[in-house]
Specification:
There is one protein chain. The chain is an alpha/beta fold and 1228 residues long. The protein has 31 helices and 43 strands. The strands form eight sheets. Strands 1, 2, 3, 11, 12, 13, 14, 23 and 24 form a nine-stranded mixed beta sheet that branches. Strands 25-26-27-28-29-30-31-32 form an eight-stranded antiparallel barrel, surrounded by four helices. It has an eight-stranded mixed beta sheet with strand order 34-35-37-36-38-39-42-43, with helices on both faces. Strand 31 and strand 32 form a beta hairpin. Helix 1 packs parallel to helix 11 and helix 21 packs across helix 27. The longest helix has 23 residues. It is elongated, with a radius of gyration of 42 Å. The N terminus is likely disordered.
């Protein structure tokens, strides 16, 4: 085709072709994901059509931070629908369906289904409108005609004096012209049948001097445009009205918006602005509330418009959402309390738009869009010529007639519509009746594209005239409704229709009037709605909504809201009688310039962009590339591997910050009606990476509402983790929700929530549902001060909506399905692991990592200051560790202030000093007492975690090791201080029984000991229920082991290298009774130790690292030692090796004068809490209560009294209090 370049069918910009790009993207994306939106900008621009785009570009060039909110999506040439089926998918209908002459009767309100769709048909009473939504607004679909308003129109009294006269407009039209670069269809280009036909009609009607080729923003030569964007020459497809794919259309996307992007503006799509409020007291500017429809959030049909997101505009809000959009926003803003003129929504106009057809003329028209036109039969641009009849004696009688290409998407309905709606006028129809019939039959038989058919001989008229501006918009049940009285309209329509009928007859065609008028009953349709927030002619809100600069009036006064500006067709006070976008653009240029001058902002109009690389980075950014508010890196877009879903959780959060229990907090909040809701979108830009990541991380964006805490709050750059390991609890997975929340006043708080999927879900569907839908929530200040606590939940209805929001960014349906299946597989796999409980996969654990990390962080409590070997009376050698104090202790009445108080710790069976020096908890026992100023000793006795334990020793034998350790300490003290120092003993389990045995039989002199903490047992080892039943069986586990010929029970056995019996035992112990459901776990060490000793802890008190560390913590025991322990546990008394009772009156007398604190965990499953009570009662009766104390710790088990992550908060301080009380005044 002469004078053209381009590829034809899907001719994307050459510069955008993927083969020319380093990355994999086929099209640019200058809009950012909403996840990257900042809380506050200097300027917020609503809409991205001509008015909004001008404001974005000019304010960005004024070095203001700019946020553009567009309800539609970002589309580039190559992404617009062409077929009827694809176009219908992009059609959104809303308004009031009211066919016929209603005479004020209400019609049926049609709610908008999806405002992000490209085509928006607004039905109304007497007036309908067709507009576009997308980044670029109406410019994406208009016919590109750049015509200035007639100078007499600009001099009408509806304009304020500041805007009357051509001279007030000239420079701004010129500025728009320089940016958009309109030009007429070149004379040396191929002839266009529809253009020739319009000229022919003009000549036959005597309007030849009024015909000319229109200036239009279509590129006819490839090259860079005024902004630096690479453009293609038009392929003359005529597809402009549904979005053209050849890259020749100079939309605001490739001009003003690309310029704004290059100067640092940040744009966000699928953001439906609902209303505007002034910022709260103490904060400047405005709050713009919007519903984010991205990531399938609109599947929550009610909440999408209830829990609104917002952005703060520090200086300016420019409304450029189009006449209908800006008017709706202003109406709703007024309902929400913004004082706006009563004029808002009134005296709107359809710009006198009329659509009609000349059907089956004598001439070829070729006026139906074709994405692949033949080089010798191009359609041309949508509009190419005009019959300009505006200059009438009565200005308001003027109008223009333009040729128009009908979109290909309408092709299937054209012939039946024409056949049904053709007028009854017979002029020109009798002549050539045979040829007319042939062309009609040809179209019916061969389709509308048949060159000689009636459709190809049909011309389309687009008329712009003057109407009476009597349309008005209201909100009914929050839905915009457009009505038009029609007074004075029908006469003008009839007059123009009569002229069109004559013009059609002049070329042998049949006149088909406006289909909307014919099908809907005297209804009109406009593609140029204007007004609704019109400029006041007298400078007050009494006669308009804005002043001459577009600034919104406060009510009906002359005072304006500083920085609140309307800059689109909504401010045009009456029909222009011509395509309005040139005037709207000029008006926006003027408004932005005046507002900038008023506020001292210099707009740099001179600096050129050069060649823009829209796949690259802006040349003049205001912010560091891809940086979030907190400085962390953020994705610029969600790529083809991206995945997202949205969820809503509702519940109650109390502001009673003293309440620590989530359940109690929820109960209190419910009683106070302290409701709360979070509406979150979870997004990952790489699903595969999320699946590989152990914590399955993704980002969070959304809103949080809780009136009792203030707000509404925006969620910014949050962190989400799916089935991540809970560091606080073993075998527990969390859904983590962690983010800052920002209120409209600028207050920043922190939200931390987690769903707790723990062992209790094992084989319990109801519990699994509860766990995965219950969010334990804490709200704090950024400094960590708790402000609120409560519980949020997902309802079944919300979950059903959530399931519909699963969205993959993959390019094809097959890949989208695979992506969704992959995510669901991850979810159900992790859920099944938890559901299978003890039969799930055991946790992976790196013991070396924990040990080395803790030591590197100062874990000196792991490695002793000194390690000694002590030899007992029977020659058995054991290890005694010593740790020096970290501070000087303060013990009142201690014998010598220079002396260091000391404690000897005695662990239980199958363990060593690590139970008191754990590297996996915040504060271990030894670390606690060292920091308190004590020298700490710990003995690993002969039945502990030591090779010596395999020799068959019993708990009774342990007394010999304790005696040897105490003797060593006394000798060391004598060498250092000249005398033995008082030694306090903390003894646990077998260590405590061994200590009691030694004191009772005299092996350990009582005066060697200053005082005792007896942990969970002392001289009355009474088994808890399960242990007691098991030990009482005739076929006890010890007997089974002996029959299997194994004298050693190892808590760490059962692996692949062990014998079949041990492997079977390991599997079998997973089903061993452990108590409540939340005590189940996947640790073989935990299960095997439970079979041997009973459950050693309440799992909720162990953090995950401690539970994973168990293989390093637990050893084993001999059958002989275990048999001795079982004998004591069933008889509830300390026994010698020969089973003689040690608790006799004579033996008890040896304990006189030794202060003892008895402690027990209320949930001890090894020794019943009654064990310490029996010893306490016995000694109180024997020696008096003043020597003895006892405390039971609720919620604690056996070893977790010392190994629990929170033991330093309750157990350690209680023991320390007793130690200090005992050592004060103690001496030899």
């Amino acid at each position: 085709m002469a004078g053209t370049t381009g590829s034809g069918a899907h001719g994307v910009f050459d510069a955008f072709h993927p083969s020319k790009q380093a990355g994999s993207r086929k099209y640019p994306r200058i809009a950012l994901p909403v996840e990257r939106m900042r809380d506050s900008y200097d300027v917020v621009v609503i809409g991205s059509g001509y008015g909004g785009a001008v404001a974005a570009s000019r304010m960005a060039r004024g070095r203001q931070s700019v946020c553009v909110l567009e309800v539609g999506k970002e589309r580039w040439p190559g992404e617009f629908p062409e077929s009827t089926a694809d176009a219908m998918k992009e059609l959104n209908v809303s308004g009031e369906y009211a066919p016929g002459d209603r005479r004020g009767k209400e019609g049926h309100v049609v709610a908008s289904r999806d405002p992000t769709k490209l085509y928006h048909f607004v039905v109304g009473d007497g007036q309908n409108a067709f507009v576009a939504n997308g980044l670029g607004g109406t410019s994406l679909l208009n016919a590109n005609v750049f015509l200035e308003a007639h100078w007499r129109v600009l001099d009408l009294g509806v304009w304020p004096k500041e805007l009357r006269g051509r001279d007030k407009w000239h420079w701004y039209y010129e500025r728009a012209r320089q940016m958009l670069q309109p030009e007429p269809y070149p004379e040396n280009f191929p002839e266009l049948p529809k253009l020739n036909l319009l000229r022919h009609q003009a000549e036959r009607m005597g309007w030849g001097q009024n015909f000319y080729r229109v200036p239009q923003t279509t590129r006819f030569v490839s090259g860079r445009n005024s902004t630096g964007v690479s453009m293609n020459a038009s392929t003359l497809t005529g597809m402009d009205a549904t979005g053209i794919n050849d890259g020749s259309k100079s939309t605001t996307l490739v001009t003003y918006l690309s310029d704004a992007w290059n100067w640092g503006a940040e744009m966000f799509c699928e953001c439906e602005v609902r209303h505007i409020e002034t910022a709260p007291p103490g904060r400047e500017g405005y709050i713009v509330y919007f519903a984010w429809h991205g990531r399938q959030r609109d599947k929550f049909k009610e909440e999408i418009h209830q829990d609104l997101m917002w952005v703060h505009a520090k200086k300016f809000v420019f409304l450029g959402a189009g006449s209908l959009g800006s008017t709706e926003i202003l109406l709703r803003s007024r309902e929400m309390g913004l004082d706006i003129s009563d004029d808002v929504g009134t005296e709107m106009s359809g710009n006198g738009d009329m659509l009609a057809f000349g059907y089956n003329t004598d001439f070829d028209a070729n006026a139906v869009g074709n994405p692949n036109p033949s080089p010798d039969r191009p359609v041309g641009p949508c509009i190419t010529g005009v019959i300009d009849l505006r200059d009438q004696q009565n200005l308001l009688d003027g109008f223009v007639i333009e040729d128009c290409a009908t979109p290909k998407a309408l092709e299937p309905i054209l012939l039946p519509m024409f056949e049904k709606l053709q007028s009854r006028d017979v002029r020109g129809r009798l002549a050539g009746l045979a040829s007319k019939t042939a062309s009609r039959l040809g179209a019916k038989a061969l389709g509308p594209t048949f060159e000689g058919g009636s459709v190809q001989k049909t011309t389309t008229y687009l008329v712009m005239s003057h109407d009476s501006s009597q349309a008005h918009m209201t909100l009914e049940e929050d839905h915009p409704v457009l009505r038009y009285s029609g007074v004075g309209r029908s006469e003008s329509v009839s007059r123009i229709n009569k002229l069109l009928m004559e013009a059609t007859a002049a070329i042998g065609g049949t006149f088909v009037p406006n289909p909307a008028a014919a099908l809907l009953g005297d209804q009109q349709i406009t593609v140029h709605p204007i007004g609704g927030a019109r400029i006041s002619k007298d400078g007050t809100g009494n006669s308009g909504v804005v002043n001459h600069a577009g600034e919104v009036f406060v009510g009906n006064t002359s005072t304006v809201y500083d920085g609140l500006v309307v800059c689109d067709g909504a401010i045009v006070p009456a029909a222009l009688g011509v395509n309005p976008f040139a005037t709207i653009t000029a008006l926006a240029e003027r408004s932005v310039e005046l507002v900038a001058l008023k506020h001292g902002i210099y707009i740099d109009y001179q600096t050129q962009n050069g060649d823009l690389d829209l796949f690259g980075r802006p040349r003049f950014p205001l912010y560091p590339e891809a940086q979030g508010q907190n400085g962390h890196s953020l994705p610029t877009e969600v790529g083809p591997d991206g995945f997202s879903f949205t969820e809503i959780m509702s519940g109650f959060i109390t502001t009673n910050s003293r309440v620590r229990s989530f359940w109690t907090a929820e109960k209190i909040a419910r009683g106070r009606s302290e409701a709360a809701r979070v509406y979150l979108t979870v997004t990952t830009d790489n699903l595969q990476q999320m699946q590989r990541d152990e914590s399955h991380r993704a980002s969070l964006t959304g809103t949080f509402t809780c009136p009792s805490l203030g707000g509404p709050f925006m969620v910014r750059h949050g962190r989400f983790q799916l089935f991540s390991n809970d560091p606080r609890k073993p075998d527990t997975k969390n859904f983590v929700y962690d983010f800052d929340i920002v209120s409209t006043s600028g207050q920043v708080l922190h939200f931390n929530g987690y769903k707790d999927v723990g062992p209790a879900v094992a084989f319990n569907v109801a519990e699994l549902w509860r766990a995965t839908t219950t969010l334990f929530t804490t709200i704090t200040t950024t400094e960590g001060v708790v402000l609120g606590r409560g519980i949020l939940r997902i309802s079944p209805e919300a979950l059903a909506s959530q399931a519909q929001t699963l969205e993959s960014e993959a390019p094809s349906l097959l890949k989208k399905a695979a992506s969704s299946a992959s995510f669901l597989s991850l979810f159900f796999r992790e859920a099944m692991h938890q559901f299978l409980g003890p039969f799930g996969a055991p946790p992976e654990f790196d013991a070396l990592h924990i040990t080395t990390t803790t030591q590197a962080e100062g874990g000196s409590d792991v490695k002793s200051t000194r390690l000694m070997q002590v030899v007992a009376a029977d020659g058995v050698s054991t290890n005694l560790g010593m740790w020096d104090p970290l501070t000087a202790a303060s013990v009142p009445d201690y014998p010598n202030a220079a002396d260091t108080p000391q404690i000897l710790f005695l662990p239980g069976a199958a363990v060593d000093h690590q139970v008191f020096a754990l590297p996996t908890i915040p504060v271990s026992t030894i670390a606690y007492f060292r920091k308190a100023g004590f020298r700490v000793y710990c003995l690993t006795h002969r039945i502990g975690l030591t090779p010596e334990a395999r020799r068959g020793h019993t708990t009774y034998d342990v007394r010999l090791d304790i005696a040897a350790a105490l003797e060593w300490i006394r000798k060391s003290d004598s060498a250092t201080y000249g005398r033995p120092l008082p030694t306090y003993v903390v003894a646990h389990c077998a260590g405590s029984i061994g200590l009691a045995s030694g004191l009772l039989d005299g092996t350990i002199p009582s005066h060697w000991i200053a005082g005792i903490t007896a942990s969970n047992v002392f001289m009355h080892p009474r088994f808890a229920k399960t242990n007691y039943v098991l030990a009482s069986l005739s076929l006890a586990p010890t007997a089974i082991f002996e029959k299997m010929g194994d004298a050693w029970y190892d808590c760490n056995r059962g692996g692949a290298s062990d014998n079949v019996f041990q492997q079977f035992l390991t599997r079998a112990t997973r089903a061993y009774p452990v108590g409540s459901a939340d005590e189940t776990c996947t640790s073989d060490v935990c299960h095997r130790s439970s079979l041997c000793f009973g459950r050693l802890w309440s799992h909720r008190n162990l953090n995950a690292q401690t539970h994973a560390y168990l293989p390093n913590l637990l050893g084993g025991t001999t059958i002989r030692s275990l048999s001795h322990l079982m004998a004591m546990g069933t008889s509830a008394t300390a026994l010698t090796d020969t089973r003689q009772n040690l608790v006799t009156p004579s033996n008890l007398s040896r304990l006189r004068g030794v202060p003892i604190l008895f402690i027990s965990g209320a949930e001890n499953s090894v020794f019943a809490p009654e064990s310490t009570d029996m010893s306490y009662t016995t000694l109180c009766n024997a020696h008096g209560r003043e020597w003895y104390e006892r405390e039971v710790f609720e919620g604690k088990g056996h070893l977790d009294c010392w190994m629990g992550a929170e033991a330093w908060r309750d157990v350690y301080p209680r023991v320390e209090r007793h130690v200090r009380g005992v050592l004060g005044g103690k001496g030899e």
